[in-house]
From TrEMBL:
<feature type="domain" description="Acetyl-coenzyme A synthetase N-terminal">
    <location>
        <begin position="200"/>
        <end position="263"/>
    </location>
</feature>
<dbReference type="InterPro" id="IPR045851">
    <property type="entry name" value="AMP-bd_C_sf"/>
</dbReference>
<dbReference type="InterPro" id="IPR025110">
    <property type="entry name" value="AMP-bd_C"/>
</dbReference>
<dbReference type="Pfam" id="PF13193">
    <property type="entry name" value="AMP-binding_C"/>
</dbReference>
<dbReference type="InterPro" id="IPR011904">
    <property type="entry name" value="Ac_CoA_lig"/>
</dbReference>
<feature type="compositionally biased region" description="Low complexity">
    <location>
        <begin position="49"/>
        <end position="75"/>
    </location>
</feature>
<keyword id="KW-0436">Ligase</keyword>
<feature type="region of interest" description="Disordered">
    <location>
        <begin position="16"/>
        <end position="75"/>
    </location>
</feature>
<dbReference type="InterPro" id="IPR032387">
    <property type="entry name" value="ACAS_N"/>
</dbReference>
<dbReference type="InterPro" id="IPR020845">
    <property type="entry name" value="AMP-binding_CS"/>
</dbReference>
<dbReference type="GO" id="GO:0019427">
    <property type="term" value="P:acetyl-CoA biosynthetic process from acetate"/>
</dbReference>
<feature type="domain" description="AMP-dependent synthetase/ligase">
    <location>
        <begin position="271"/>
        <end position="657"/>
    </location>
</feature>
<dbReference type="Pfam" id="PF00501">
    <property type="entry name" value="AMP-binding"/>
</dbReference>
<keyword id="KW-0547">Nucleotide-binding</keyword>
<dbReference type="Pfam" id="PF16177">
    <property type="entry name" value="ACAS_N"/>
</dbReference>
<dbReference type="GO" id="GO:0003987">
    <property type="term" value="F:acetate-CoA ligase activity"/>
</dbReference>
<dbReference type="InterPro" id="IPR042099">
    <property type="entry name" value="ANL_N_sf"/>
</dbReference>
Length: 836
């Protein structure tokens, strides 16, 4: 049997200084675009969190072209042929434990036998690559294109393939290696919320057979000012089938509630006012603060009162462009308290991107800070906001009020540019507000927030979530996927600029009354031991991060980890992209001391909460698999014709029915919502991801199948980068693809055709990268610019991205059929220029 051995203040100035504060922080008070065809307006959507940006930066500095194939040797090297491995959370290979779960989850599938031969590559049984591969005409996908590109599924998955090869060539039995199970020890399982596959099965069965009762019971644990309507025993209505009319989802309609009340007031009223709700850890060690539920409620009330005072009402949008100060989640909760719709834009997006979002949702107010330090780097947020507001004004929309948090640790007030009449210091207006603020009771279906995300066109999609279902679902998923127990300290490294920071740094944990760690800095500053220092400092029990951060830290070796005890850790989590088994193993063995289960949570901005995730203790884990669906989630893997596949299979990951936190629409564009997500495979929500289900019913996510690149766990549309590139006057055409990147998961590889007669130069290369940085944000900067005298196109002008991906991956001998190209000679030219 092969086994894997494998404030100065201490708090916001405007709230009482918490006793545990030690800091000295003054603040916390606290598809081929071309000129010829007209480039799309540049815009970006997402960027890695500050955490992730750091790892991206370090990755590109060292070797931007390294493929992740090296991880393959890691896994081989650490394979041993010793017997069954069991740690405190041990690994084992056993068929029995799984039989229940597998038998049930793999609908229509009877198999539960274990130890059968299957290579790690989850795409073993993927359909063959279609002839021309590229799914989008002219590299310029139409909004809501219903086509998906199977070739990208194949290229995305090379990490897994490589590992399979590596293991095989070392004479290991790949088969058994992939079947290694990591199972929680008896003690862990006994106390787990979901302690067995049987318990999971029972709950899952009820959740899909009678979702109305299942979710009503859970929803009843929250405060509802008025109970929801029940029609024919139903608390939800949905249409997931475009053939039957408009797509529509509603949960708990008629119910009146408030998510801020449930996340704060409810705990304060239950006597928990003095319990710590949030530990804030600044970029600079020693700068920290903590806020209790009482403090947080006071702060949120003050901000909500201020917003009301400047005319923000229920249903109005508020844009938040802030670093990870306590004030960021506070601002979100303050909007929720008064029924305003928050739209957080990651404070790393460029002015252009911010302007685009402002123009789309037309906020009354923008909340920001004058600057922030990330590691040793100062980021002047105020100049970015100023530029964005200027652009928005030129385009016809004027923001009347911009509230600026003076982040004294990063920069001085005197050095901050100012627009009289519009700009106002946060510290001048918030602390003087009353700490009492009436709650606006909203309908469960009233919108809670908007969050822009990348799609396959240049225009970002404003994903809209409503209140009641989102509240119930994020709270429930948080509790179960992390096996959360009252009193535990939980640290999520995500920035609130992304969905993870919404659902699992703010709402999910606070709804459960958990103590959250909010870290402003980056994992490698001042050194690679920072995370573990923080874990020990706050006795973190649950730690949730992204594979890109894990890989960046793994490169620094075990020493910085082992220097710290980490004995408080109980559960680890992963999100953002598929975690490669080598990183999983390192996370498990080194960070978690082979003691802590890893919840590899698959979900999306659109889903609002976890969809496929382990429940620690409930069943054994397989490194790299997100395991099984959460309660109420009915995944379907379909083939290219939309036919649902059963048992062991690979294809496109869809969902058959709504779950409470389904996103309700794309802001201002319901047709795009329908065509993007519901038209490709009729009757299903299409996730945009490829997926394999193995013989045991485990789900293995294999990456995006559309033209979205997942860099450091965050989505960037290739169309957006192409559009930014063609904004450069010397760029005639651009085609962007993803390629395997050792740390970031995927990197950005841009093929660029210059205008006639322009010479290639390093300066131009830098200028092009700078163009993308300024149009979208630094995180979207291409890692590689590949000069392209021409692009491989079919006679109808369709770019064959399959070929570009192969060239980017240096798989020149796997180009496949190029005979349908208008000019096959282009490929030779591109190969010649590969390293130029
Ligand atoms: C939460 C979040 C969503 C896309 C999603 C998928 C990828 C996220 C994953 C994962 C494999 C996981 N993704 N978690 N892939 N395993 N555990 O990241 O939302 O930024 O919208 O990205 O991220 O490709 O479609 P979002």
């Amino acid at each position: 049997m092969t086994t894997l051995s494998c404030g100065v203040l201490s708090g916001p100035i405007c709230c009482p200084a918490p006793s545990s504060a030690r800091g000295v922080r003054g603040a916390a008070g606290s598809s081929g675009a071309s000129k010829r065809s007209g480039g799309r307006p540049g815009n970006g959507e997402r960027e890695p969190s500050s955490f992730l940006s750091a790892s991206s930066a370090s990755a590109s500095a060292s070797d931007s072209s390294t493929s992740s194939s090296s991880s393959g040797s890691d896994i081989t090297a650490s394979c041993s042929s010793s017997g069954v491995f069991r740690g405190r959370f041990g690994a084992r290979a056993s068929p029995s434990a799984l039989s229940g779960a597998a038998g049930r989850v793999g609908r229509g599938w009877t198999g539960a036998t274990f130890g059968i031969s299957r290579a790690i590559c989850p795409l073993r049984c993927m359909a063959p690559t279609p002839g021309t591969g590229a799914a989008f005409t002219n590299g310029r996908p139409a909004a809501g294109s219903s086509q998906v590109d199977l070739t990208s599924v194949l290229s995305v998955d090379t990490r897994y393939k490589t590992e399979t090869h590596a293991a095989a060539s070392a004479g290991e039995q790949v088969v058994e290696e992939t079947q290694v199970l990591f199972e929680a020890n008896e003690e862990f399982r006994k106390n787990a919320l979901v302690s067995s596959t049987e318990k999971y099965e029972e709950m899952y069965k009820q959740s899909v057979e009678d979702p109305d009762t299942f979710w009503s019971e859970i929803a009843s644990q929250f405060h509802w000012e008025k109970k929801w309507d029940v029609t024919d025993g139903k608390v939800h209505t949905e249409n997931f089938d475009v053939r039957k009319g408009p797509i529509k989802v509603e949960w708990f309609k008629g119910g009146k509630t408030n998510i801020c009340y449930n996340a704060l007031d409810r705990h304060v009223e239950a006597g928990r006012a003095n319990d710590v709700a949030m530990f804030w850890e600044g970029n600079e060690p020693g700068y920290d603060s903590s806020v209790t539920f009482g403090n947080l409620l006071d702060l949120v009330s003050q901000v909500s009162n201020y917003l009301r005072s400047v005319g923000v009402k229920k249903g109005d949008a508020v844009v938040i462009y802030m670093p990870m100060l306590v004030e960021l989640p506070v601002a979100m909760l303050a909007c929720a308290r008064i029924g305003a719709i928050h739209s957080v834009v990651f404070a790393g997006f460029s002015a252009d991107s911010l302007a685009q979002r402002i123009l789309d949702c037309k906020p009354k107010v923008v909340l920001t800070a004058n600057g922030v330090m990330r590691g040793t780097k100062f980021i002047n947020l105020k100049t970015i906001v100023d530029d964005a507001l200027k652009q928005a004004k030129q385009e016809g929309y004027t923001v009347e009020t911009s509230v600026v948090f003076a982040n004294e640790v990063a920069t001085k007030k005197e050095e901050t540019a100012w627009v009289e009449g519009r700009d106002i210091w946060w510290q001048d207006v918030i602390p003087s507000q009353s700490t009492k603020s009436e709650v606006e009771w909203v309908d469960a279906e009233d919108p809670l927030f908007l969050l822009y995300t990348s799609g396959s066109t240049g225009k970002p999609k404003g994903v809209l979530h409503s209140t009641g279902g989102y509240m119930v679902y994020t709270a429930t998923t948080f509790k179960h996927a992390f096996d959360y127990r009252p009193g535990e300290v939980y640290w999520c490294t995500a920035d609130c600029g992304w969905i993870t920071g919404h659902s699992y740094l703010t709402y999910g944990p606070l709804l459960n009354g958990a103590t959250v760690v909010n870290f402003e800095g980056v994992p490698t500053y001042p050194d690679a031991g920072r995370c573990w220092e923080i874990v020990d400092k706050y006795n973190v029990n649950i730690f949730y991060t992204a594979p890109t951060a894990i890989r960046a830290l793994m490169r620094e070796g075990d020493k910085p980890v082992k220097k710290h005890s980490r004995k408080s850790l109980r559960v680890l989590g992963s999100v953002g992209e598929p975690i490669n088994p080598a990183a999983w193993k390192w996370y498990y063995e080194v960070v978690g001391d082979s003691r802590c289960p890893i919840s590899d949570t698959w979900w999306q901005t659109e889903t609002g909460g976890f969809m496929i995730t382990p429940m620690p203790g409930g069943w054994p884990l397989k490194p790299g698999s997100a395991t099984f669906p959460f309660f109420g989630v009915q995944p379907a893997i379909v083939d290219e014709n939309g036919k649902e596949l059963h048992g062991e299979c690979s294809g496109y990951l869809c969902v058959k029915a709504s779950w409470p936190s389904t996103f309700r629409t794309l802001f201002g564009d319901h047709p795009r919502y329908e065509t993007t997500y519901f038209a490709p495979f009729k009757g299903f929500y299409f996730s945009g991801d490829g997926c394999h289900r193995d013989k045991d019913g485990y789900y293995w996510l294999t990456g995006r199948v559309d033209d979205v690149i997942n860099v450091s766990g965050h989505r960037i549309g290739s169309a957006e980068v192409e559009s930014a590139l063609v904004h450069h006057p010397l760029c005639a055409e651009a085609a962007v693809v993803g390629y395997d990147h050792e740390v970031k998961g995927q990197g950005i590889y841009a093929f660029v055709t210059l205008v006639e007669g322009v010479e290639y130069s390093d300066k131009l290369r830098k200028d092009l990268i700078a163009k993308v940085r300024s149009q979208i944000g630094p995180f979207a900067a291409p890692d590689i610019i590949h000069w392209a005298p021409g692009l491989p196109k079919t006679r109808s002008g369709k770019i064959m991205r399959r070929i570009l991906r192969k060239i980017a991956a240096n798989q020149i001998d796997e180009l496949g059929d190029v005979s349908t190209l208008a000019d096959p000679g282009v490929v030779e030219q591109l190969i010649e220029l590969r390293d130029k």
